[in-house]
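The instructor's notes for this session suggest beginning with a concrete chain rather than abstract definitions. Hand out the sequence below and ask the class to guess, before any prediction is shown, which regions might be ordered.
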Amino acid sequence: MSRLSGPALRLTVLVGESDRWHHRPLYSEIVHRARAAGLAGASVFRGIEGFGASSLVHTTRLLSLSEDLPVAVVIVDEEERVRAFLPRLDGMVAEGLVLLDRCEVVACTGRPPERGEREGPAE
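After discussion, reveal the predicted structure:
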């Protein structure tokens, strides 16, 4: 895992909660690939309402549609590292939106790994 401060690139992948990649949630596969690539961090945020290209609104207020809420996977790292990661998403995001934004990391702190916990790939 890399320590990060200063200029960075934010990758946001917007997909549906029910989207799958080989029987696994797509958002989970993206997070695991980001970790395997040694990126600084990734988080998944579940939306409460949204719509995409189909214009069908998915919301927590309607029980019949609540199983496919919008999900945002957010990854932040140095620009070169994020751009090098993009090919790992090829073919995975059939329906969704992939965004890149320049940003600035003000603070990036983390806890040391616990005994026996994997730190991530060596670089």
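Then share the key points. The chain is about 15% helix and 35% strand. The radius of gyration is 16 Å.
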